[in-house]
Design a protein that fits this description.
An eight-stranded mixed sheet has the order 1-7-8-6-5-2-4-3. A seven-stranded mixed sheet has the order 12-9-13-14-16-15-20, sandwiched between helices. Helix 18 packs across helix 20. The chain is α/β, with parallel strands linked by helices. The chain has 30 helices and 23 strands. It is globular and about 95 Å long.
Length: 864
């Protein structure tokens, strides 16, 4: 019998309940956590067990019934009363419990699994007399008035222009102010506080101006198209309702940083980035509070919500609890709740959060004081237990999906209720006055804000120049070679496990070989060079964060930087032994998610911009599970929002006969996104190259995302090694020229693993007339380096060779940037295909042989 399904018991189950209760009284641990929660709740109301169905509940049974079922009869819809009645909620003391659980807030306690948390919530909700004082009531009304006046002003001055009004859920404005007030007062005054907010377009303009203090004149100038250009501003820009802002606010004597993240139209897409920003702020010593503002249809429909929920309790992504505010409009674009989040008498748009085992407060958005009390409880619960809490603010949408849309086409009955309904400010004003708030004070704040709106419009009509943003950092040329002593120290650390640590025998061989490589006793493979990059950066004090599926070991067992003791199962994070401070090097396996995890790391990189923030795909093929993050944030955020990141994506890529889902990181898609120097896209082919590339990214002052096609079979290819000396000197090379062939009839340019296939074929056939040039950086395109690599040769033919099908890989990109003075560029590779790769080893081998045959003369290369 579960916690959520049986708060009141039928006669057949009552003996079982009584038996469990006797066991609980003798030893609470003898029953499960759900039963413990029940009995703790019952005893809190007077002791005993629920009455059987058919009799009138009383005492503890009635209390528990209201705690678990009362939300179903609560009056949370501002547009119409809830007529539902449940027999288990009737009884002599029903009025007392109805006031607590059946009024303007329906508190769902049923999903709260931890007995201590449930007991705390019950005690708070049933005994805490929290009510706003006069100053708070004035602030609540001021927020409601400003929210509505702002929307009405825009509605009249800019008729029919999209603004995605918040009207119907105006309470979000004063509630955010209250939340910031409470959080700014937490802890010591010297402790920095921040509130990181993610929301979609509905209500964003209102929050920007009335919470984060975006100048009203700037907002109105955006509507009037009178914004003057700012030198150095982002080249593309974005629509008003996608923009974000950081504001240093003060509530009384307390300071707090408010950050509203930029967001695309993709609903809920910003959520993981909010969590990443909050985590990064927390790691630098702030008390950061993440707040996610959802829509009712989106929170139920978008899969990233579930992915983010799963991160709540995982150590690499923990943020101490997120507060969720759902702006429940009771409609999604033109879809009714039955279309978008479910049907049935007990279905809520917030049901996705039940899996978290946290409280969900269903609130009538017209009752701002009830919403205020629910938010206070939710915030204190978050502070007490470090977990999420949810407010479902049931309101309405005054207009259509946008202000040019007519919602009566699809929801005529709903909008017959919405049109005459008073605004939340109109609902609350008489209540505030009755509670003792000064009428003169309210009229004064109304007049002051109305004046602000009028004056701001005049300023906007005259033309408004926004403040210039932060000047972007210029590119530098960092030294990436390492000191011999630093690499020796990396070797020493790997060679000295903790006392009592017992290696897995196979892992021990890898580590012994790695130590020998780092001492220079044999050439370094990829794994040794990669960890040398991290280890030397750690010694220099730079931060490293590496997450993804299986990154501690590496998908292909090449990294082995967090080792497991065979006897105790304890973990040894080797790189931590090289760090200058605790937490400087963080390597953690992620949840089996691409979208939420990459979004989190992108958000993290917005704050922690020194060192390395890396996400590795288990296979590069799976990166497109995070395509929204790649397209809407990583590739375009700098152009749209002047938002910079140096996040790194490591994507295993290469054709080895593993089929269409384990061959391609879709290199072509990243290259199609390249413009305005927005990304670095690289395909390093030697251990020394990945060493220098990672160190270059960590030390580069010009912040750009780095996309790296990393190898699979090359991790253990004896030809793909580098001497230690290559790590001590040199730097990242965008192009690796031909080093052996001097006279070539045919010059081949290529990237990645196929170089080693070509090299093996050339050596096997003892060919000296084919030169091989590796293009290791595809964007920014290294035209000067390519020209230099081509200059020693006067070939009859120049080829671009790739493993990917013709319509994929780098071919279209290279051809676009190719300088015809270098010669006519021919293509050699697989023909165009709808699928990245074939499904059998034999077909793969035949195709690979055909590619090599095109290069070495058995088949003619195809012209561009």
């Amino acid at each position: 019998m579960s916690l959520t399904n049986a708060p009141v018991f039928d006669p057949a189950s009552l003996p079982l309940v009584e038996d469990y209760y006797a066991k609980f009284k003798a030893n609470p641990a003898s029953v499960g956590a759900e039963w413990q929660a029940y009995f703790l709740g019952w005893e809190g109301a007077g002791g005993g067990v629920a009455n059987a169905a058919g009799s009138t509940p009383s005492g503890d049974g009635l209390a528990e019934a209201w705690r678990t079922r009362g939300h179903l009869v609560a009056q949370t819809n501002p547009l119409k009363p809830n007529p539902r009645r449940l027999p288990e909620l009737e009884g002599a003391e029903a009025a007392k419990w109805q006031a607590l659980y059946g009024g303007s807030v329906g508190l769902e306690l049923g999903a709260v699994r931890e007995p201590a948390e449930r007991a705390w919530l019950q005690a708070w909700w049933e005994s805490n007399p929290a009510a706003p004082d006069t100053a708070t009531r004035t602030a609540l009304y001021e927020g409601l008035f400003q929210a509505n006046a702002f929307e009405q002003f825009l509605h009249k001055k800019f008729v029919g222009v999209k603004r995605f009004s918040v009207e119907g859920n105006d309470g979000v404005v004063p509630l955010l102010h209250q939340l910031a007030t409470w959080h700014s007062a937490q802890g010591q005054a010297a402790l920095a506080k921040s509130m990181v907010i993610g929301m979609a377009h509905r209500g964003r303009l209102n929050v920007l101006c009335n919470v984060l203090h975006k100048p009203l004149a700037e907002m109105f100038a955006g509507f009037a198209d009178t914004l003057k250009p700012v030198a150095g501003a982002a080249s593309a820009g974005d629509v008003k309702y996608h923009l974000g802002k950081v504001y240093e606010a003060h509530y009384g004597a307390n300071a707090i940083t408010l950050q509203l993240l930029f967001n695309p139209s993709h609903l809920e897409a910003v959520n993981p980035s909010v969590l990443g920003v909050a985590r990064a702020r927390q790691e630098r010593g702030e008390a950061a509070l993440p707040v996610l503002i959802h829509g009712d249809s989106a929170v139920a429909g978008q899969g990233v919500v579930a992915e983010c929920n799963n991160l709540m309790s995982l150590a690499p992504y923990r943020v101490g609890g997120t507060l969720h505010l759902v702006l429940n409009n009771q409609v999604g674009f033109t879809g009714d709740p039955a279309d978008t989040w479910g049907t049935g008498s007990e279905a809520y748009c917030t049901d996705i959060f039940k899996a978290l085992g946290v409280p969900i407060f269903h609130c009538n958005a017209d009752d701002i004081e009830a919403c205020w009390r629910a938010l206070r409880c939710a915030y204190e619960y978050r502070q007490q237990f470090g977990k999420d809490a949810v407010l479902d603010l049931v309101g309405y949408r005054r207009w259509g999906h946008n202000e040019g849309d007519d919602p009566t086409f699809t929801q005529p009955k709903l909008y017959a209720l919405v049109r005459p309904h008073p605004t939340p400010a109109e609902v609350y004003k008489p209540q505030a006055l009755a509670a003792g708030v000064s009428k003169a004070a309210l009229e004064q704040l109304e007049a002051a804000y109305t004046k602000q709106l009028d004056e701001a419009l005049k300023d906007a009509q005259a033309g408004y120049t926004p403040k210039a943003g932060k000047e972007p950092s210029k590119a530098n040329t960092p030294e990436t070679g390492a000191e011999a002593g630093a690499i020796k120290k990396v070797a020493e650390v790997w060679g000295k496990p903790p006392s009592g640590f017992v290696y897995n025998e196979k892992v021990k061989k890898v580590i012994d070989e790695r130590v020998a490589m780092l001492y220079g006793e044999k050439p370094l493979n990829w794994g040794a060079a990669e960890v040398a990059a991290y280890g030397t950066l750690a010694q220099e004090g730079l931060r490293i964060r590496l997450t993804g599926q299986d990154v501690q070991r590496g998908t292909f067992s090449h990294r082995q930087c967090v080792l497991t003791c065979s006897d105790t199962n304890s973990r040894w994070n080797v790189l931590n032994d090289l760090a200058q401070r605790d937490g400087q090097v963080y390597v953690a396996n992620s949840a089996l998610s691409e979208n939420a995890v990459l979004g989190f790391e992108y958000g993290y990189s917005l704050i922690q911009q020194s060192g390395l923030t890396i996400w590795e795909g288990q296979f590069g093929d799976f990166a497109n599970g995070a395509q929204v993050v790649i397209d809407q944030f990583i590739a375009s955020a700098e152009a749209k929002w002047a938002q910079t990141s140096n996040v790194v994506l490591l994507l295993p890529h290469g054709y080895e006969g593993q089929g269409p889902e384990h061959s391609s990181a879709r290199l072509e898609r990243f290259l199609q996104l390249c413009a305005d120097s927005n990304l670095r896209v690289c395909v390093p082919s030697t251990p020394a190259q990945i060493f220098h590339l990672l160190r270059h990214q960590a030390k580069q002052t010009e912040l750009k995302p780095l996309i790296v096609m990393t190898p699979k079979s090359l991790l253990r290819n004896p030809a793909a090694v580098s001497p230690l000396s290559d790590l001590l000197r040199g730097s990242w090379q965008p192009v690796l020229p031909e080093a052996e062939v001097k006279q070539a009839k045919r010059v081949v340019l290529c990237s990645g693993k196929v170089y080693y296939d070509l090299l093996a074929k050339r050596e096997a056939e003892k060919r000296t007339d084919v030169a091989l040039i590796r293009v290791e950086q595809l964007y920014p395109f290294p035209a000067e380096a390519i020209a230099k690599a081509l200059s020693p040769f006067k070939p009859k033919e120049v080829l671009w060779v790739q493993e990917e099908p013709r319509n994929m890989g780098s071919w279209a990109h290279v051809r676009e940037y190719w300088d015809t003075t270098w010669g006519y560029l021919h293509y050699a590779g697989r023909p165009a295909s709808a699928s990245p790769a074939v499904g059998t080893t034999s077909r793969h081998n035949a195709e690979q042989a055909a590619v090599l045959a095109q290069v070495f003369g058995e088949n003619k290369a195809k012209a561009a």
